[in-house]
Design brief:
The protein is of the alpha/beta class. The chain is built from 5 helices and 6 strands. The protein has a single domain, classed as Leucine Aminopeptidase, subunit E, domain 1. It binds adenosine-5'-diphosphate (ADP).
Length: 176
């Protein structure tokens, strides 16, 4: 987990918080398209879009990462429209696609927490829990990075991770 710009990472794949048209947008999506160059848009245009909770893979073009997994996060409405499950789906589908491609290292941004308005703590909990479950059950990817854009986001995600680790140690101690 670190603060930074996901477009600069030397990992096998980075995840993009895309929109369902896959034609580029603002936020992290815009940054990824700018850094990858115009061929990314051309490849995305051949994919026919992507539904919320699902993901698609493309090459990374000029990015240091050779692959980009585009996933479409839910727009937060009131929490009663399946937002939590859809955000978990985004992470699971991205991880499945990374595994199928044989990617060893993958970086996620904080999907849905910008323009799409998902509450940050809730998003962190879902992202970290879904990823931990996937990693426990699959051999790939080996390493997952969560890249937070601001110091505040990083400190909130760090807190949530600490709480999860403490809870896990307590549960393990209770089991023995
Ligand atoms: P969404 O539409 O899914 O909410 P956004 O791109 O608006 O996606 O925001 C998702 C998160 O990505 C926000 O926390 C935003 O601050 C962050 N972000 C924006 N640019 C970058 C970047 N270059 N690298 C990593 N994270 C970024």
């Amino acid at each position: 987990m670190e603060r930074g710009d996901i477009t600069t990472l030397h990992v096998d794949g980075i995840v993009n918080a895309a929109n369902s048209s896959l034609r580029g947008g603002g936020g992290v999506d815009g940054a990824i398209h700018r850094a990858a160059g115009p061929k990314l848009k051309t490849e995305c245009a051949t994919l026919g879009g992507c539904s919320t909770g699902d993901a698609r893979i493309t090459k990374g073009y000029r990015l240091p990462a050779p692959w980009v997994i585009h996933t479409v996060g839910p727009v937060w409405r009131d929490g009663k429209h399946g937002e939590e499950e859809l955000l978990a789906d985004c992470h699971r589908r991205s991880l499945e696609i990374a595994m199928e491609k044989g990617l060893e290292t993958l970086a996620f941004p904080a999907i849905s927490t910008g323009a799409y308005g998902f509450p940050l703590r809730q998003a962190a909990n879902i992202a970290l829990r879904t990823t931990a479950t996937f990693l426990a059950e699959h051999a790939l990817p080996h390493e997952i990075y969560f890249i937070l854009f601001t110091e505040r986001d990083l400190s909130i995600w760090g807190e949530i991770l600490d709480t999860m680790i403490k809870k896990q140690s307590k549960d393990q101690a209770n089991d023995t």
